[in-house]
Amino acid sequence: MENSYALITGASSGIGEEVAKNLANKGYNLILTARRKELLDDIAQEITKKHNIHVSVIAKDLSKYQTPREILNFCEENNYRVDLLVNNAGYGIKTSFHETSLEDEEDFIRVLGTSVIMLTKLFLPKMISNGGGKIMIVSSVASFAAPSVIQPLYGPIKTFMNRFSDSININYKSKGVTSTAVCPGFTVTGFHTASGVQEQMDRVPKFLVFSAERIADEAIKATLAGKRLCVPTKTYKFLVFMLRNLPQSILTLLGKILAPGRYD
Question: Which of 88, 118, 136, 207 would suit a FRET pair with 107, their CA atoms being 20 to 30 Å apart?
Answer without folding.
Answer: 136
